[in-house]
Design brief:
The structure holds 2 protein chains of 2 kinds. Chain A has strands at about 5, 10-15, 20-25, 30-40, 45-50, 55-60, 60-65, 70-75, 85-95, 105, 110-114. Chain A is mostly beta strands. Chain B is an all-beta fold. The chains are: A mainly beta, B mainly beta.
């Protein structure tokens, strides 16, 4: 049973437009959510996070929105740039020390078209 | 600052052989993790350690063991490798358990 779901394996967006990546979760104990970016042959790198006490967190071109009632979060990238082409993983955790480690989705491959 | 260093970068291993993947961090992070990444399955937690001297099982621990003798090192051992353990293995660490984790560059392991 997958607790973190990224239902779009891939997404193609034109350069300069907004990229929206979606993530759903089923475990109501999750209270800390993260997005990671991964290039081929490299380890994942942390992008942005959000605690369940907030519904939005912004860092430059990246904004994460959290809808707790829907158990849904999304990552907005605007404007999208060619260097944003990568696989994006959504992750979640119980920050209070429940289940250990981060639980990841399967990833969404974002392709930015010139 | 190196962050997290994994070795080897890649390895081809005969089935049945024993293999230890090395992981060292220089950030003095309390928690460390081992994940495997497989196509279509994302990143799955193998084992974790919330502090030196303690370890725990993740989602897919069978066939793997870990130890955490000190803060910096967290080796992953395959006692008798099988082809289904062909994967890319990532070590990660975080200041506290279940918070933002930093990843190594990965070890690509092929078991034949």
């Amino acid at each position: 049973d997958q607790q973190v779901k990224q239902n779009s394996p891939s997404l193609s967006v034109q350069e300069g437009r907004i990229s929206i990546l979606n993530c759903d979760y089923t475990n109501s104990m999750f209270d800390y959510f993260l997005w990671y970016k991964k290039y081929p042959a490299e380890g994942p790198t942390f992008l942005i996070s959000i605690s369940s006490i907030k519904d939005k967190n912004e860092d430059g071109r990246f904004t994460v929105f959290l809808n707790k009632s829907a158990k849904h979060l999304s990552l907005h990238i605007v404007p999208s740039q060619p260097g944003d082409s990568a696989v994006y993983f959504c992750a979640a955790s119980e920050s209070g020390g429940g289940a250990d480690g981060l639980t990841f989705g399967k990833g969404t491959h974002l392709i930015i078209q010139p | 600052i190196a962050g997290i260093t994994q070795a080897p970068t890649s390895q081809i291993l005969a089935a049945g052989r024993r293999m230890t993947l090395r992981c060292t961090q220089d950030m003095r992070h309390n928690a460390m993790y081992w994940y495997r990444q497989d196509l279509g399955l994302g990143l799955r937690l193998i084992h974790y350690s919330n502090t030196a001297g303690t370890t725990g099982k993740g989602e897919v621990p069978d066939g793997y063991s870990v130890s955490r003798a000190n803060t910096d090192d967290f080796p992953l051992t395959l006692a008798s490798a099988v082809p289904s353990q062909t994967s890319v293995y990532f070590c990660a660490s975080s200041r506290q358990q279940n918070t933002e984790a930093f990843f190594g560059q990965g070890t690509r392991l092929t078991v034949v």
